[in-house]
Amino acid sequence: MRLEPVPAFDDNYLWLAHDGRRAVAVDPGDAIPVIAALQRLDLQLTAILLTHHHADHIGGVAALRERFDGIEVFAPHDERIAAATRRVADGDTVEIAAPALHLRVVALPGHTISHIGYHGDGLLFCGDTLFSVGCGRLFEGTPAQMLNSLDTLAALPAETAVYCAHEYTRANCAYAAVVEPDNAALQARIDEVRTLRAAGTPTVPSTIARERATNPFLRVDAPDIVAWGERQGITAAARVERFAALRRGKDQFRAPAA
Fold it and tell me: Is 119 a catalytic residue?
């Protein structure tokens, strides 16, 4: 299985999972770059996976269904995603014959109430729930829901490759360094990200192991993050409140100019 990032809009990645002949599109918010990538790689689209209803994730679905007749569109139970052909929920399995994919659906409420992810074959498509060194904004869910979703993802096998939907890593690293300045793994990631972006290379996929080591939103119980929370007046036992404070801090944070 090969994964092709298809850049779109300002910072989205619309992923194509393919075997060299057949492809699955993940969160195709714009059909035009997806079609161009399919043509460039000589691929036939067979299915679409959707994580949530936001337009930059579903905006290209109708045009792709019109062009590729009969493709199945997997999506959460959310009436705002009208183009779905198969609704899936937590614990369901998605079996795609070509390219061969066996995925388990994971409920990930927080960014939106109905957000889901797809995990299997060493891959995680997590939409806007988990980013490299960050997480999504809480547009509909509560901090407790989002923290539970991130705890679920943090418990996945360490080697799981994390295919998120945005190139946010550099700004996320800047915020994480303010919260946890003595994290050596984070400093190494910052150096790596600087090199990758200077070369125009994506900073993702990441891995669950890397995120456990560098991502403050997966490190809510790490001693330095607990200490950060205590400086905000949050007791060590109040992990949901600490997570909420971390997320509010990121919402207000402005990364320094590069």
Answer: no
Any catalytic annotation for residue 128?
yes
- Token pair, residue 31, equals 């059909």
How far apart are the C-alpha atoms of 30 and 62, rounded to whole Å?
10
The whole-angstrom separation of Cα 7 and Cα 68 is 21
Chain segment 35-44, per-residue pLDDT in tens: 999 999 999 9
d(CA 250, CA 145): 18
69 carries an active-site annotation: no
Q: Is 102 a catalytic residue?
A: no
For residue 52, indicate whether it is catalytic: yes
Active-site residue, from 53, 56, 78, 119: 56
Active site residue 56: yes
Catalytic residue among 53, 54, 115, 119: 54
* pLDDT on residue 257: 56
Instruction: Please indicate whether residue 115 is annotated as part of the active site.
Output: no
- Please write the tens of the pLDDT for every residue from 147-185: 999 999 999 999 999 999 999 999 999 999 999 999 999
